[in-house]
Fold these 2 entries.
Entry 1:
Amino acid sequence: MATEPLLSRSALPAEILIRQAHVLDPRCGLDAPLDVLIRGGLIAELGEPGATRPPSGAAVIEAAGKHLFPAFSDPHVHLRTPGQEYKETIATGTDAAAAGGFCQLIAMPNTSPTVDQVSVLEALRARARQQASVPTGFLAAITVGLGGEELTEMAALRDAGALGFTDDGRPVVGAGMLRKALQYQRLAGGVVALHEEDPSLSADGVMHEGAVSARLGVTGIPSISESTMIDRDAAIARYEDARVHFQHLSAVQSVEALSFWRSAGARVSGEVTPHHLTLTDEELLGLDANFKMNPPLRSEADRRALIDALRSGVIECIATDHAPHARHEKEMPFEQAPMGTTGLETAFAALYTELVRPGLLTLPVLIERMTAGGSLYGLRLPRVAVGEQANVVLVDLEQDWRVGESGYRSRSGNCCFEGRRLDGVVELTVAAGSVAFAAPGVLRTTLEEVS
Amino acid sequence: MRGHLLSIDDLDRAGIERILDRARSFAEVAGREIKKVPALKGRTVVNLFYEASTRTSSSFELAAKRLSADVVSVRSVGSSVEKGESLKDTVQTLSAYDPAAIVIRAPFAGAAQQVAGWTDACVINAGDGKHEHPTQALLDVFTLRQRLGSLDGLEIWIVGDVLHSRVARSNILAFRRMGANVTVCGPPTLIPRQIEALGCEHRTTLDRLQEADVVYVLRMQHERMRESYVPSLREYAQRYQINLERLREGQLLMHPGPVNRGVECSGAAIDCAASLIGQQVKSGVAVRMAVLYELLVGAPALQAVA
């Protein structure tokens, strides 16, 4: 494919020496304090801690006690552009991602208009080239207008740079329609990503069906709404030898289905969000619409199954499903409010605080899962290795912060972690060789030291 | 004190008893020729109703008037609500009149709780979606106490469409809190999964209805057939209708209204001596007076009434 998969605005290549950070990149076998020298946007040297001399013109960051990871990759964000720029723009969404430590984003096509034709995709890519502070790629719709009736020009959209296809926000209801898309994938290429939900089972549900929905009298979405569609679509994928990715898994039955079909030879993968890994439907007892998302927060048993699947690799990656909504929309009564939570700025800290600190997941596994998303769509894995483009994040794990205290970089504040105290503060994000985010003071003071 | 009544969970047993004791003295007021007391003179009560309601809205209006409050009733039909004004904007507009209380009925769970966050007034939930209807539960407990003295150890069956019923949810909580045992019974399609988390038993047949001291019947809406929750009202009535053949001597019959005669209840059962349905309506005014009084005037005893 001649077209660039990811786009971002042009920025100066980074020239930074990060000294004595604890470098952790499990894929590269790194887990030790090192000096990391970035020159011309590339990782130029990985040296003994404290031994590297700063070249002239490079900023120096004294990072002893802090951690440096390959920067994160998010295969599932909603940047709301075009059409709903009051919720998010490419600029604000990618700034939020940069502040969360991400170096790759894949944006969903359920915009207004839908990304279902080449002209829309091209315009969007042009805007990303002007505005994105983090390299961003795009999926196109499987069906025109997400209507489930008519295939998009998948091959032309691929040629124009679509990384894959999804009707995210909606399932492909017709099995026959999905089958045709998967057959056509042999011509067009690209991963087909699926939001799994049987509308006849979800009906007008707005939260997980269980004890909490029984107490609240709010219509539930049963777990089988998701898992029965995974079973159906994995069976079709295996029959057509197609490549399918299941988005935002939420239920124990879904994990079982994914695991079963993979061992049965289907080419299937899965993602899970930070909120499904850290929160349950108990949060909804107060009917706060910031906890309303689709798929819904489910039970503790579901959460535990998702964590186990992430640990074992049945689920390969974390995806935020960053879904901004304006304040006035989320202030509607719970049952009317739109579904979704933002997640880019809190993903790492939430997972580190709620999974790594209590011992449910190791830090190396978390880093692997937070960096794997883009690779499922054929993007290059972020790696801390000499000669690689610099895609790194520097985090202070010893520092905590209160979510929302200093506002958000996202245009919307509908964050399910609002008000929580989380461990892990992102200090610097280098994406595609350029500084995408630096916490106040991180680069400035060190520049003074150099001069 | 500035409290709200959003859920039965806001009240412990002592709190329920305090309100109901006060309701008893207000019920006496209702027997007088002049039915008014000056407790809320000069204060404003807003009734904000986003759903059709006869019983609840009229009894709240009457309760506030009998306490001498000024009452403003806003209904969704013909109000700015119909013009697309958000709940928040409507509440903030009405709050400009500095009401002492806002009584809200809305088709959405949690609406009353949201309103409480947007106003300084005391908020009373008069029904929010399928979530709760706490004053209905209080008046039902009041009615049973008037008749039986206590609910301790009582076997209460709630029969019908539990899934869509805010009354069922508030009443399960209130009956349990007052010491009764609750069994819900209805077609499996209309009993929420994991309803036992509310502390009740559940059954799908009336076979053991004899065990009940009180049979509380829920309204069966016609639209449930279209949605295939039940195949037909005929089959529903065959299996679940409460009639004189199914009621035994000594059982009491209750219904929150409005009744579909011949569907969930036979006409003869509604009109029989065991029926407390008329009494429930009568209790509504006294109990809502007591709730308004409890929230707006507070604990000190009933001099205002005496």
Note: The two ends of chain B are 22 Å apart (CA to CA).
Entry 2:
Amino acid sequence: MSGRRVRVVEAGRMPYHRALGWQRALAQARIDGRLEEDLLLLLEHPPVVTLGRTAQGAHVLRPEGVDVVEVERGGAVTFHGPGQLVGYPIFDLRGRPYRQDLHWYLRTLEDALVVALAELGIPAERRAGFTGVWTGGKRKIASIGVHVKQWVTWHGFALNVTTDLSQFERIVPCGIEGVEMTSVERERGKGKGETELWDEAVVAVMRGFERAFDVEITSQESSCWRCETC
Amino acid sequence: MATNVYMEALSPTMEEGRVAKWHKRDGDAVKAGETLAEVETDKAIMDLVARADGVLRQVAVAEGQTVPVGSVVAVIAAPGETIGAAGSAPPPAPALSGKGKGETGNVGVATAPAVATVSAVSGADPSRVKASPLARRMAKEAGVDLKLVTGSGPGGRVVRRDLQGAATVAASPPTFPVSRVPLPERPEGAYQDVPLTQIRKTIAKRLATSLGPIPHFFLTSEVDMERAAEAREALNKQLGDQGGGKVSFNDIIIKATALALSRHRACNAWFQEDHIRYWNEVHIGMAVAVEDGLITPVIRNADVKSLAEIGREAKELADKARSRRLQPSEYTGATFSVSNLGMFDIDQFTAVINPPEAGIIAVGSIVQKPVVLDGEVTARRRMRVTMSCDHRVIDGATGAAFLQTLKQMLENPLAMLL
């Protein structure tokens, strides 16, 4: 164990623009040293299409009825919506166990999700040259796009848990023609309730981060269980 | 003096980098820490950040262009310094293709939030800013650079009112440290639905199978903790000399409860539909508050462990519980539980039984109270303990006898040695 801690904040469903403002403020606070610990924001967005820095307009096929937002993350076009577990690590990559290496960071994010999916009973893998997490060789289950300033990260990953996959028909996901998107629910088959699957996925992602990044996940400030007054 | 802006490596093996986007244009005022441009690799974007205040000049690389790591992509001229004429360099050619992506100078980029009273100063001497002491302190607290604040006081002096807007803006993003389900502002709408987390759901399920179906009854006793406190002080002094960890009141309560249970097996039991399992082993569950719920890690065979062992284990389990690292084997199998809200200044409360256990004690805070002792009123440290009993297993007198033993042990810690 590296002993480095990451605080998980489960923020529920949050509009994209609000989460974005929040991420930027948190990242700047981390850069300035006002925020002293690394965070992993876990949340879900109402339907939205986002364009990363390599996105092309032609990759948005059906923008009707959904917000289209251009953002500063790496990567192309993607869709976020209910049932998709979105994770935004606000990590300061300076110092162990992290590295000042964005390729390392991307690969480790992928590893974390591969571990999480294994916990959920889904064999998943990386594909060289195609950032993201894949299963069954060519079905994409999680997308990744990150941004870093002075080695502090924001943006992150989107793991389809029970996402309505037909929404991806609005776009050319990741700018790759013919890519098939999938979800935890589709890979595992129905059976579990949506909320149960979601909670399982949240726990699995925390485990994945612990293993891949060699950090300790906390979700609580230390309290006074053993304070001297009692 | 001019400062070069270099193409930076996004990873140690990277040899060249592609400029995805310029945030600043030739001639723009920039300050240290501001994002000048974005560099791209794979699916990551990194900000190239200004290392000095000044004016951006000689932007040498267009958007979409790839250059070797270490090459100069622009220069930051000190204010007033002349390095080429403003606007003489051609504007960088937009490289992103596709509809609506031509000129991207003002498309949703990550610039710092604009502050009404803050504006970039160009040409002025930045080294000396006239400001009132209060304004200086406010600026420091709000993280505002005074050089960028237009003063409205005499002679351009920065005064409090110039910073009030800035301070509000600086303070309005989320406060730190973040707490449970923090939101950056008051959410829209009258209410917010937050899905149940796994732990909340488990608590709901388990406790609903308790207070409803289980016929609870409650017994309360006030315990004199004066001697336990003295014993603890002496013990901690000794442990401190040996460099060991301290013993808390909670450790003493766990130990005493376990010992009392070993003498009252009728209270150390599980109700199991068609039978009652009376346990010979004593495993104490201790309720630990964690974010968004509680969990009861188990101190096994607490009746035969030393106080120091219990203290060590309790601390370790509580830490693990808070970081959600408890293994199932560490929070299942308790035969009786202890819940302590003394640290929250709760005098007395009733706890809900954790089935299939048949009892739990709820421990309040230790408070100094006037009590009559040997015909005289004196101040003593007192603590209220309330036991919740499952009447299917424990009858009133059975529970009372256990509680009496527990009280005796806490009031006379030497009794624990008997």
Note: Chain A touches chain B through 75 residues (CB under 8 Å).
